[in-house]
Design brief:
By secondary structure, this protein is an alpha/beta fold. It contains ten helices and ten strands. Strand 9 and strand 10 form a beta hairpin. Helix 4 crosses helix 5, helix 4 runs parallel beside helix 6 and helix 5 packs across helix 6.
Length: about 325
């Protein structure tokens, strides 16, 4: 592993058992949720993981957290293989890798006060030599998350807060352990548009003040354009394109990336591009297409795409050229 990469994912796969075609069939069928993902994360870097619903983004986050056991592949953190750990080893890693879930309504215990929710990770991990030390850490995490002054919110319950405030509580519960990586799984999709910018700005600020690396999972490229360093585009269980945010926004290479960018709302009429509307539905992840898995919907597919599966796109090489290169 390179010294600048402190998280490295190699060949990561997760297959879920699927129902057999019939009660008489002996054929084993699997849902290819994550199917050979490779990427690296640098310290204090923000990567936007982008793709439509069902492409495997959330499953990938669960694999990184250790909440799902991978079928194959490795996850290395700070030079250590954390793919298969026992409970005690996993507990130690989770202090450094925390997750912000999509729905704050579901991820908070409605019977606990805000103070109890944010204090619980400290108790579970045995952090803090005294109650007063833990209280200080709780208040700092809350105020760093925008819940100021903390005393106003400590004794409240989740149902007494707005959606944006609840999401800030979820972020505070992650920050209280002082993690090095934050996995943000669609953290603004359940919020009003006016609140989304506040949460994204908060994550951008935390990245600087706390030197936290962030994997921001989203289906909306437009919401992270100013926030992310790099973007990884995911389709049907695989990453098909990786580049800096500027490269991907200005010179997308993969047809799927171009389609995602074409539907982002642009206020300036002169800057609008023709929308690319993909035909058909995303293929069934149980019966993955042969060759390039995007070819059934690709507007520039050629015959070779049905046979050869190209690696994710490098900049300066088009999707068609990548297919042709494999065939030659």
């Amino acid at each position: 592993m390179s010294k600048e990469h402190f998280l490295e994912v190699t060949g990561l796969k997760k297959y879920f058992d699927a129902d057999r075609p019939s009660i008489f069939s002996r054929e084993a069928r699997y849902v290819h949720a994550v199917d050979g993902v490779d990427f690296t994360l640098r310290r204090s870097e923000v990567i936007a993981l982008v793709g439509e619903s069902g492409c495997g983004k959330s499953t990938l986050a669960l694999l990184l957290m250790g909440l799902e056991e991978p079928t194959a592949g490795t996850v290395s953190f700070e030079g250590r293989d954390i793919t298969h750990l026992n409970d005690n080893e996993r507990k130690d890693v989770r202090r450094k890798i925390q997750m912000v879930f999509q729905d704050p309504y579901e991820s908070l215990n409605p019977t606990q006060t805000i103070e109890e929710i944010i204090n619980e990770p400290l108790v579970v991990h045995g952090i803090g030599s005294s109650r007063s030390e833990r209280d200080e850490r709780v208040k700092k995490a809350m105020e760093d998350s925008g819940l100021k002054p903390a005393e106003v919110y400590l004794k409240r319950f989740p149902h007494e807060l707005s959606g944006g405030q609840r999401q800030r509580v979820v972020i505070a519960a992650a920050l209280v352990l002082e993690p090095e990586i934050l996995l943000a799984d669609e953290p603004v999709s359940m919020l009003d548009v006016s609140i989304r910018a506040e949460i994204i700005n908060l994550l951008a600020e935390l990245r600087i003040t706390r030197q936290i690396a962030v994997i921001f999972i989203t289906h909306d490229l437009g919401s992270v354009g100013f926030f992310a360093d790099r973007v990884a585009v995911m389709y049907l269980g695989r990453i098909v394109e990786v580049g800096t945010m500027l490269e991907v926004l200005e010179k997308p290479q993969h047809p799927y990336t171009k389609a995602l960018l074409s539907v982002i709302p642009v206020p300036n009429l002169r800057l609008r591009h023709e929308r690319i509307i993909l035909q058909g539905e995303t293929p069934n992840p149980i019966d993955v297409p042969t060759g390039c898995r995007f070819h059934p919907r690709c507007p520039v597919a050629i015959a070779a795409c049905k046979v050869s599966d190209p690696p994710f796109v490098s900049f300066g090489r088009t999707h068609q050229a990548a297919c042709l290169l494999l065939v030659k």
